[in-house]
Design goal:
The structure holds three protein chains of three kinds. Chain A is an alpha+beta fold. Chain A has nine helices and 18 strands. Chain A has a six-stranded mixed beta sheet with strand order 6-7-8-3-9-10, with helices on both faces. In chain A, strands 13-17-14-15-16 form a five-stranded antiparallel beta sheet. In chain A, strands 2-1-4-5 form a four-stranded antiparallel beta sheet, with helices on one face. The radius of gyration of chain A is 24 Å and the shape is elongated. Chain B is 75% helix and 0% strand. The longest helix of chain B has 34 residues. Chain B is built from twelve helices and no strands. Chain B has a single domain, classed as MetI-like fold (Orthogonal Bundle), CATH 1.10.3720.10. Chain C is an all-alpha fold. Chain C has two domains: 33 residues; 223 residues, Orthogonal Bundle (MetI-like fold). Chain C has 14 helices and no strands. Chain C is globular, with a radius of gyration of 22 Å. The model of chain C has no long low-confidence stretch (mean pLDDT 89). Classes of the chains: A alpha+beta, B mainly alpha, C mainly alpha. Chains B and C meet through helix 1, helix 3, helix 4, helix 5 and helix 6 of B and helix 1, helix 3, helix 4, helix 5 and helix 6 of C.
Chain lengths: 320, 280, 266
């Protein structure tokens, strides 16, 4: 089911969490809402789920206007950042909850619970209580619980936020595979650009309550709409008031057409790559990322003067 | 383009709240709750103030300053303060022993602390009279004496400070004390400079509750005091005898004083809580 | 961290205080009550007036517990889960019954429902008797035990948070279903604790009930009023028997409370 959000506005007191946000999320896609914390992405997700009413604007799920529908009637699966596990129920009880609410026959519930637990690799934990599970297991249980009712839309709020780095990496890949298996329209919130780039088909960058850009990971990286998107998705440095990726700059030991002079301040070797900090006489600082071979060829050492220019076709963004 | 404003709907929220569409339900709930509390609690209490002030400030003042009423109020206040003070010290001490000491019978001791809360107050009075009354086997007769009234008040207020201090003491970080010891502080200094300041809010809250209870107690004192005006008659007993003799104006006047005192203690407690929250 | 000797002294003071104030008096009254065996105690408790008093206490307590459980949970949900103007004031006011003298509560009810007031007279004309009758005693008992359930449930409700309920909503549960299947199990120990406290308070209430009941033997006399009346009439055995019976109930309630205390459910 596709999700269409039109002109959403939401304020908390005097704070504008969302200002006139409109996006289309195609059916069956895996979309990331990416942005810094406090940017409004979680609020957007909660409004889609019906957990928060918007001040203005509409939400359509699968073509029907859901703006005023309570969460019970939207048929969305929601996975909370801290899982919201029902502590007094076993894993199986948690997963069965939505099915029991829908008064499905006992046998069908049991079958579906087994199926879901298998899907999330939790069969052996069916009779455990949430308190007896690790963070990653609780997360998978919460996913199974949300998926059990066959939602039209799966919404995940910072799904990996509370996990440690290793588990995070594993679950990311697993979520991607899971989506390829079940194909439900999935939207997840994250503030980690690496996570969004790795998992999502499409990324919506949200900042200050506004949509900055929508696109595939490649589009966002290669054609950032503005300085914010460019800066949020990867390292940037500044040359003559223009943002540019440090690996899109080249260095020369003598002046070249449209190059500018700069003095080397510091050289940091990070394995294969070398980071060179430069100072332009009274015109600010910048840094350049080059390979070790290039650095050796130029004999880069602090104090020498080099010449910098962007490579042909470098991604740039005006200083917003 | 820097954006790090606090978003109330992002990050871990202890209690996110939803204003669901259809605030009519909330309005109904608030209306119901307010009406219920008004009928059960507020209107009756307002009736007391109305009765006490209905004939003007002068009548109210003369009702609470009759020698008997004034003596009862004075005794109530003095006993309340004494009882609060004893509780502050002994209650903290008992809490300390329960948390930091180990000895056989500690669990039983911990359990019986709550008895005064569970025991009917009239039974409390009767129980004390059995040991400290006219038929005292230890020849300690506190019946019809102020000390007896005070014993009754100490009985019913026992759990307040203990139960307020105990959880704080359990949670108290022992490393603070170890740090103080490593810095050369002696045992008493550690208690005075490290432990006590951390317990103080709990002690104050428990003491305030004990005071409020002591000035309002009736059941536990009624048998032991013997209703002797100017000697053992506390305010609540005085109110009771005025009601019995159909003098509701005098009863309402003294009641109003007790009500105001209760309200003052509640407000002080709320203020203390807010202060505590700010410090934590 | 007192020294070994200091620790022993502290322990002695604590134990001595509790013995003198609590344990010895209670022990003595039990010993005196059963000095002639259980027979006289049973006899005293099964007399017509004692049985009637227990019945009155029981029925008043049941109504008060039901009323305060419903209102307590409702108020807790309202105060914890919602924001509305006047919330802080309401929050402060619900504690008032704990600080008000029971005698004052009784007087307050007389001043509203007594025969000398317009409202009381109007009620009496329509055949509703509140003061010197059960309704007044129920009102008094409800008043004095009003916040006990609320004060147990509210902090747990706060701590549990709203996410589990929201998760239930997204899974299709109605507000009522979410409350019954998710919220109620989460607060069940606190609720049980509050109910038990309310029951203890209701069974033991004396002052407020003494004022509004008129203390009519065989009519509005409760168990606690029975204790006082028998004692004043020099029927110590009956007073002691009932007092010990009430104390036994109190101890039973305490035991239940202590069983409920490890609240971390499953």
């Amino acid at each position: 089911m596709a999700i269409t959000v039109s002109h959403l506005t939401k304020r908390f007191g005097t704070f504008a969490a969302l200002s006139d946000v409109s996006i289309d999320i195609p059916a069956g896609s895996l979309t990331a809402l990416l942005g810094p914390s406090g940017g409004g992405k979680s609020t957007l997700l909660r409004i889609i789920a019906g957990l928060e009413p918007p001040d203005a604007g509409t939400v359509q799920i699968g073509g029907t206007d859901s703006t005023t529908l309570p969460p019970q009637r939207r048929n969305v699966g929601f996975v909370f950042q801290h899982y919201a596990a029902f502590k007094h129920m076993t894993v199986a009880g948690n997963v069965a909850f939505g099915l029991e609410i829908r008064r499905q026959p006992k046998a069908a519930v049991k079958r579906r619970v087994d199926e879901l637990l298998e899907l999330v690799h939790m069969e052996q934990f069916a009779d455990r209580y949430p308190a007896q599970l690790s963070g990653g297991q609780r997360q998978r249980m919460a996913l199974a619980r949300a998926l059990a009712v066959e939602p039209e839309v799966l919404l995940l709020d910072e799904p990996f936020g509370a996990l440690d780095a290793q588990v995070r990496k594993e679950l990311r890949a697993w979520l991607r595979r899971l989506h390829d298996e079940v194909h439900v329209t999935t939207v997840f919130v994250t503030h980690d650009q690496e996570e969004a780039m790795e998992v999502a088909d499409e990324i919506v960058v949200i900042n200050n309550g506004r949509v900055e850009q929508v696109g595939t990971p490649d589009e966002l990286y290669d054609k950032p709409a503005n300085a914010f998107v460019m800066g949020f998705l990867g390292p940037v440095t500044r040359l003559d008031g223009v943002l540019v990726r440090p690996h899109d700059l080249e260095l020369f030991d003598r002046p070249e057409p449209s190059s500018v002079a700069a003095t080397v301040q510091r050289v940091v070797r990070l394995g294969f790559e070398v980071r060179v900090d430069l100072e332009r006489d009274g015109k600010g600082e910048l840094w350049v990322q080059i390979t070790r071979g290039e650095a050796e060829k130029l004999a880069v050492t602090p104090g020498i003067e080099l010449f910098v220019r962007p490579v042909a076709g470098a991604v740039t963004a005006g200083d917003g | 383009m820097t954006a790090t404003t606090a978003d109330p709907a992002a990050g871990p929220r202890p209690t996110p709240r939803l204003r669901r569409p259809g605030g009519a339900g909330l309005g109904l709930g608030v209306g119901l709750a307010t009406s219920y509390l008004s009928v059960v609690v507020l209107l009756p209490l307002a009736a007391i103030v109305a009765r006490a002030s209905g004939h003007g400030w002068g009548r109210f003042w003369s009702a609470v300053t009759t020698p008997e009423a004034a003596a009862a109020l004075r005794l109530t206040l003095v006993l309340g303060l004494l009882v609060a003070a004893v509780n502050a010290v002994v209650g903290t001490l008992i809490a300390w022993v329960l948390v930091r000491d180990e000895f056989p019978g500690k669990r039983v001791m911990d359990a019986i602390i709550d008895l005064p809360f569970a025991l009917p107050t009239i039974v409390a009075g009767l129980v004390l009279l059995a040991l400290y009354g006219t038929t005292s086997p230890v020849h300690l007769n506190l019946a019809y004496a102020r000390t007896g009234v005070m014993a009754a008040l100490l009985f019913v207020t026992l759990p307040f400070v203990v139960r307020a201090v105990q959880p704080v003491l359990i949670e108290l970080d022992r490393e603070m004390e170890e740090a103080a010891a490593s810095l050369g502080a002696e045992r008493f200094t550690i208690f005075r400079r490290i432990v006590l300041p951390n317990l103080l809010p709990a002690i104050a809250a428990g003491t305030a509750l004990a005071f409020a209870r002591a000035i309002s107690e009736f059941g536990a004192t009624v048998l032991i005091s013997g209703n002797l005006p100017f000697k053992t008659e506390v305010a609540s007993v005085q109110i009771f005898s005025q009601i019995e003799s159909d003098n509701t104006l005098a009863a309402a006047a003294v009641s109003t004083v007790l009500l105001l005192a209760a309200l003052a203690v509640l407000l002080a407690l709320q203020a203390m809580q807010r202060l505590g929250v700010r410090r934590a | 961290m007192p020294s070994r000797g200091g620790r022993g002294a502290l322990r002695a003071v604590a134990v001595g205080y509790l013995l003198a104030l609590l344990a010895l008096p209670l022990g003595l009254i039990c010993w005196r009550t059963f000095a002639n065996g259980a027979g006289p105690v049973w006899h005293a408790l099964t007399s017509a007036s004692a049985r009637h008093a227990l019945e009155v206490t029981g029925s008043v307590a049941v109504v008060a517990v039901v009323a305060n459980t419903l209102s307590g949970v409702g108020l807790a949900v309202l105060l914890v889960r919602h924001r509305f103007p006047g919330r802080r004031l309401l929050d402060a006011l619900v504690d008032l019954p704990l600080a008000v003298s029971p005698v004052v509560v009784g007087l307050a009810l007389i001043l509203v429902y007594g025969r000398t007031t317009g409202f009381g007279a109007w009620l009496a004309e329509h055949g509703v008797k509140v003061i010197f009758a059960l309704p007044g005693m129920v009102l008094a008992t409800v008043f004095v035990s009003l916040p006990l359930v609320l004060r147990e449930v509210a902090p747990v409700l706060e701590e549990v948070g709203i996410e589990q309920e929201q998760a239930a909503w997204t899974l299709g549960a109605s507000a009522a279903q979410a409350f019954r299947r998710v919220t109620l199990p989460a607060i069940r120990w606190a609720l049980a604790y509050g109910v038990v406290l309310t029951l203890a308070r209701a069974l033991g209430e004396y002052g407020a009930v003494a004022v509004v009941s008129g203390r009519l033997v065989g009519k509005t006399q409760t168990a606690t009023l029975f204790v006082e009346e028998r004692y004043q009439n020099f029927d110590q055995p009956a007073a002691y028997a009932m007092a010990v019976a009430l104390a036994a109930v109190a101890v039973g309630i305490l035991l239940v409370i202590n069983l409920l205390r490890p609240r971390e459910g499953s």
